[in-house]
Amino acid sequence: MPEFSEALVSALLCLFLLNSVPPESLVVQNLWADATLAESSSHPEGSRASLGHVFTLDSDSTALRGSSDSQTPLYPPALSTDPNDPLVPIIEHGLKLVGVETHPRNVILKFQDKDSKVHWCQVQLLKHTVAQAFAKKDWEEAVCKVDRTDRGFKVGLAFEFKEYVLAFLTLDLLIQFYWSPNRASLASQPDVYLDFPRFLEDVVKWIADRRNVQSNRSGNAMTLVRTSTEIFAGGGVYTMPELWHMAGLAPNLTEAEVFDSPSRTARLCAAYYHFAKEAHTTLWPLVKRFLVGFVICVDEKDRLLYSERLHVHGKDRSYVTARFRDLLSDLQGVFEARSKESLWIRQCDDSGPFDVFEPEFIRHALESEEINLGSLIFGGEHWANLCASAGLPAACMSSRNPLARYYASLSLPPAMSASWLNLGRYTYLFHSPETTNALRASHPLTQLYRISKSDIWSVIPAFPDNSAPIPRARPPKPPTENVSPPPPPPPPVKRGKPGKQKRQSRPRAPPKPKAAPVLIPKPTPIHLCDSSVRERTLLTYIIKYTQDFTVGPLDYCGIARRIKGRGGDL
């Protein structure tokens, strides 16, 4: 599934097209799509769809796309016609592309018809999907004349304009389109970089809701966040391990271990902000280097360029600072020292275990003056000292943000809400620019873990099997609201023999209240993959020895390949 970076690049390419051509040339002349196998068989023999070629959609089209249980139409419903009515070519509506919005998991297109009515189209990127804008000649020669099974991608939906065709290309037609006259009815998850306050508000609501309904919260935190539809939109199978690394978190921490700690939660949110800002400010200049017109086109050697921006996913080694290296060594020492114990509780004291966290990895967030999570991460006093030593403005010391307000309202035991940081290691915040290669002082090997059928790359080791999260008291059962039935009538009194009286039993003392039993969480099992599996999952191996795609906007289904010809590049 396209993640934050891929969705952003597709939206920015659409925006680049919008801003580069005359507005009057962006009136939709036709809608194109590839047919599914079932749809192909229903088209007339010899037609483009029956032959496996991309075809134009008529106004009576009933083609649907998306998840099997909630598919939506390709053709805008507001402009469609009934099967018994005359067809109306879409060009007659004067539907013009007038706006593009970025979104962590979607591309949002805004159209306006000749009557000034607005038509929004949310393109939900469900699997391998990329936007490309072909010149008309290239579209006709390289796409229209090639069977969908031969060209290596399928056309989810394409908008034909006067000179260009904006196409959303997919691996297997797993894509969805939502048409609506109202923007408010479409995807609304905030972009963490563009709206950090609202992002934090959503995180707070999600944490609070989970605490209210989940008693244990012992599931794997990374898996939970990655599969959530409410927070961290755009964070998927490779983005999440990157954020975990940047936040200094072990891959098998539980939900409670992460989100009961203000510092860990703040570091994770700050990591996503940093990741998103990097994407917004530096990713498009990288992609523009490989544009041929409005088509992303790369050489084989360029496919790995995006991976150079990653820390751990699919990497053989990760470059880290000396501070990170020392913290990693400290953590490994704790694991080794406790390896003989049958079971030890993951509780932080003066000897650790401490998180392997490097502030350089979330620098954008720590330098933010609008909302800054530094006081939550390090504690107010230590953060003030770090700000002063780094020369950060006073605004960076503010703790006014939704996350800080939420944790201030909780009464968490210190052991559960610890920062998990060895503050003695943080005598400075950032490395001096004059320090040569400070961010590449060490390059430890990565490890590949597997949890819940998902791969997790990490330099930070998982907590060992003989460790367990801090026990939590099992919450009392909520009182039932059902009305108890009336007590049964007393049994009839039996008459004994004259002169004998039945011995009366002593009334029983009320039972003593039982203490709430301790609940030792059972984390989701995590498996360390062997070296052969790890090697075959490296990005370099996949690109060199397989036909599979990897990650990033330069190596996705639908990205063109540059080939050499007599006249130069083709």
Distance between the first and last residues' Cα: 29 Å
Strand content: 15-25%
User: Which spans have pLDDT < 50 for at least 5 consecutive residues?
Assistant: 565-570
C-alpha Rg, in Å?
30 Å
Task: Report on the biggest sheet.
Answer: 5 strands, antiparallel
Name the shape in a single word: globular
Helix-and-strand structural type: alpha+beta
Strand order of the largest sheet: 2-1-9-10-8
Helix content: 25-40%
Overall number of strands: 23
Quaternary structure annotation: single chain
Q: Tell me, rounded to a whole number, the average pLDDT.
A: 90
For the record, the count of structural domains works out to 2
* Continuous helix count: 15
What does this structure look like?
This protein is α+β, with helices and mostly antiparallel strands and 570 residues long. It folds into two domains: 4-185, no CATH class; 196-469 and 523-565, no CATH class. The chain is 27% helix and 16% strand. The protein is built from 15 helices and 23 strands. The strands form eight sheets. The protein has a five-stranded antiparallel β-sheet. Strands 5-6-7-11 form a four-stranded antiparallel β-sheet, covered by helices on one side. The protein has a three-stranded mixed β-sheet with strand order 12-13-21, with no helix packed on it. A hairpin with a 6-residue loop joins strand 3 and strand 4 (72-73). Helix 1 crosses helix 8 and helix 6 packs across helix 8. The longest helix is centred in the middle third of the chain and has 27 residues, at 262-288. The relative contact order is 0.13. Mean pLDDT is 90; it is low at 565-570.
